Amino acid sequence: MTISNTIVDILTNPKHSLWIAPLLVVADAVLSALIIKKVPYTEIDWTTYMQQIALYQAGERDYTAIKGDTGPLVYPAAHVYIYSFLYELTNKGQDIVLGQVIFAGIYITTLVVVLSCYIRAGAPPYLLPLLVLSKRLHSVYMLRLFNDGIATFAMWLGIFLFQRRQLTAATTVWSLGVGVKMSLLLLAPGVAIVVALSGGIWTAVPLALNAILTQVLLGIPFLRENAIGYASRAFELTRQFLYEWTVNWRFVGEEVFESPIFSINLLVLHVVLILAFLATRWIRPSGEELDFFAQKFIEGRSTRHPLSSKYITTTLLTSMVIGMLCARSLHYQFYAYLGWTTPFLLWQAKLHPVLIYAVWAMQEWGWNVFPSTNASSAAVVACLAVQVVMLLLNDDSSQGLSEDIKKSVGEQKTK
Question: Does the pTM of the predicted model rise above 0.90?
Answer without folding.
Answer: yes
